[in-house]
Design brief:
5-stranded mixed beta sheet; alpha/beta; 4-stranded parallel beta sheet; Glutathione S-transferase Yfyf (Class Pi), Chain A, domain 2; single chain; 4 domains; about 450 residues
Length: about 450
């Protein structure tokens, strides 16, 4: 058996039962943002499932016929919520991406920048720390002002460069959370002991989000551990079919957090929280029952910051935020973590705000990890429709709960917005309302 046949047979073995659960009813079609945008059956969940089935049976080629439709999927998994027979689309998608990656490796197709970023940047906390320091110097040196004034980033890295203007202004490095520390509650009595998952993008660029998360937890009566050896969650690797690396990162994180007795493990990024919640499924094949057991215990503790703050109900709101506010949910927070209502519940508790709901709030903003970079044009079609709704509401603040969504919605405000407004993470708005000084 050659490598190509081995890849096909593996795909068949992993997806046979899953793809045959799909009854092709079409309930997923209205929920799928790419089907709505492209109006093509191969851009729908049921269409992609059928293509995976055909590829697994050797009827079509994995790279020539399956790769493009799969690459055009956002992975928002809204189809799973809509599905009446509970087809595990996310699992099918991951197996398909893994087969595509394996086929590209077999065909010796190279993706130099992507492979470097995934395997030499995100997998190594020290390298991420270095990139954070470089980004800090890039801003403080004045080089960023030159780059933005001349649109140099767009000239050098084309469409990816458009997102440079959506990156945040980083505060002083003294606000970057130190690993291996216990941060004690700021209340007389500790009501909960938790661990904080920092993430890689948040820890490197959006560390003001981590800082606000930590301070809000401490204000609410939580002692917060920050495990030293934690690393990237592995979501970006899984999205690109590099499951071996994703599983290794999962194993590393299980080891890092297993040292602490905590009530919950807190995340503030919907994408990270989603894969952390599915570590038991991620590890079931490679590491066997022992790792699955550890992962099951781990996943039960994963909580989004919004869920924990809402359940504690002890935020010391001290300032009124007299602003019109809307919220773009994180697909992974809503569809996988099933915690999508908590951010809105918290927003409605903030004194002074006028909260206006987006009509199609549950439609993906088309960030999709790095989808907006890899599939820029398709991503912008979906984002422009989202921004039409935002423009009709004319909010002063657009709130998100995931760094990818935050970059995407900031880019949307910059590119399609008709009224000056800002896009911020939920915890930043909560911090303002609790009197935490802006960084």
């Amino acid at each position: 058996m050659n490598n190509a046949d081995s890849i096909t047979n593996t795909l068949l073995k992993k997806t046979y039962d899953e793809v045959n659960q799909c009854i092709q009813c079409g309930y997923c079609l209205p929920a799928c943002p790419t089907y709505a945008s492209m109006e093509n059956e191969s851009a729908s969940p049921r269409g992609r499932i059928n293509l995976v089935k055909m590829a697994a049976e050797g009827k079509i080629d994995i790279l020539e016929d399956l790769k493009e439709p799969i690459d055009l999927c956002l992975g928002c998994r809204a189809c799973e919520v809509a599905c009446p027979v509970n087809v595990p689309y996310g699992s099918i998608l991951e197996h398909a991406k893994e087969a595509i990656n394996d086929a590209e490796v077999h065909a010796r197709k190279k993706h130099t920048f992507k492979d470097f970023a995934l395997n030499h940047l995100f997998m190594k906390p020290k390298t991420m720390k270095l990139s954070s320091n470089m980004y800090f110097l890039y801003q403080k040196s004045g080089l960023q002002r030159v780059v933005r004034a001349t649109n140099l980033s767009e000239k050098l890295v084309k469409k990816a460069g458009k997102f440079e203007k959506a990156l945040p202004k980083v505060p002083s490095k003294k606000y970057q959370i130190q690993r291996g520390q216990l941060y004690e509650a700021k209340t007389e009595k500790t009501v909960k002991t938790v661990a904080l998952f920092l993430g890689c993008i948040n820890d490197a660029i959006f560390y003001h989000v981590n800082y606000y998360t930590l301070e809000l937890l401490r204000m609410s009566g939580c002692d917060v551990y920050v495990p030293k050896e934690q690393t990237c969650c592995g979501a970006l690797h899984a999205h690109q079919g590099q499951m071996k690396h994703s599983r290794q990162l999962a194993k590393d994180n299980l080891k890092a957090f297993d040292q602490y007795e905590v009530d919950a493990i807190i995340t503030n990024a919907g994408g990270c929280g989603a894969i952390l919640r599915e570590y038991d499924q991620l590890l079931i094949e490679e590491f066997g029952t022992e790792w699955v057991r550890k992962a099951e215990q781990f996943t039960k503790k994963i909580k989004d910051i919004s869920e924990v703050l809402f359940s504690l109900d002890s935020l010391p709101f001290s300032k009124e935020i007299e602003k019109v506010v809307t919220y773009q949910p994180s697909c992974h927070l809503s569809n996988i973590q099933k915690a999508g209502d908590y951010p809105e519940k918290l927003l409605k508790k903030i004194p002074g705000i006028k909260y206006v709901e987006l009509p199609s709030k549950n439609t993906c903003c088309a960030s999709g990890g790095i989808y907006n970079i890899q599939q820029y044009d398709e991503s912008m079609k979906i984002l422009s429709k989202k921004m039409n709704e935002v423009n009709n509401i004319q909010p002063e603040i657009v709130v998100t709960s995931n760094p990818g969504c935050l970059i995407q919605m900031t880019h949307g405000v910059n590119t399609f917005g008709k009224k000056p407004s800002e896009s911020i993470h939920l915890v930043e708005l909560l911090a303002r309302a609790c009197g935490i000084e802006p960084l």
